Amino acid sequence: MQVWMVLLIIAVVIIAVLAILYFVGNKLQKKQEAQRAQLESAAQMYSMLVIDKKKMKMTEAGFPKMVIDQIPKRGKIAKVPVVKVKIGPKITPLLCDELIYDQVPVKAEIKAKVSGIYITEIHNLRNVAPPQEPKGFFKKFKKKTIEASRNVSGRK
What we know:
- It is built from five helices and five strands, in the order αβααββαββα.
- The chain has helices spanning 2-41, 65-70, 73-77, 98-101, 137-152; strands spanning 44-57, 79-87, 90-96, 108-115, 118-123.
- It has a five-stranded mixed beta barrel.
- The longest helix is centred in the N-terminal third of the chain and has 40 residues, at 2-41.
- It starts with a helix and ends with a helix.
- The chain crosses the membrane at residues 6-25.
């Protein structure tokens, strides 16, 4: 009889954890949709020359001190896609969306939609070969996951 009680308690705990994760996930998804809407409303088109692109820590990317101070500790440690571009006479590091990072050509002129320091979309690639599909199971899985999260948030 005690084995059934233990299994019942474990099942109840697992169901409770899954329910909590479901509600927290919904809350975070709504928050992400609101942030995407803000990014889209503040976005502007810029013509820029891409100098370099790397995945590096925010502290090493060359962002102003004011930007670095606003980032939480976890964000300072994580590697993010950074693109160094020349907009007019000024060389600026910009953050790039994970989905379009592989599509950004190096040493080429592009038109991109920029919101603050974040590149959200790329338009009008000049003299650039189309990007290759990612090779490897995990890269393809990551791309599908990002595309699915975009489709859920209403952005395609």
